[in-house]
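Priority: low. Protein: GNAT family N-acetyltransferase. Input follows.
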Amino acid sequence: MEVLLKVSGAKGSAVAQENDRRAGMMSYSIAGPNLIIIDHTEVEPAYNGRGVGKQMLYKIVEMARKESIKIIPLCPFAAKMFEKFDDIKDVLKS
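Result:
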C-alpha cells in the first residue's frame, strides 16, 4: 500500500493506492500556516478492514510533525482515531 500526499491551493489529501488502484482518500483543508482540518475519509469497499484509513491518517500526521502543523479532526473517523491512539496526539490542536 502506497500513500501519497497531494496539495492544491487550500486543500490537501492523502491518497492510498495499491497496484495502481485507489484504495482510499482522506481530505483536509489548510486553515492557516500551522493548522489543517481533516474533513473527510473514504475507503473503497474492497479495502475495508485493512487499515487504509489509519495509514492515510498517519501519513498526514507525519507531514504535520515535519512542518509543525496542528490538526483539527472534523471527520468522525479521524476524530475517533485521535481518541484511540496516544502516539498521534502531539499534533492534535487543543
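The radius of gyration is 12 Å. The chain has a mean pLDDT of 97.
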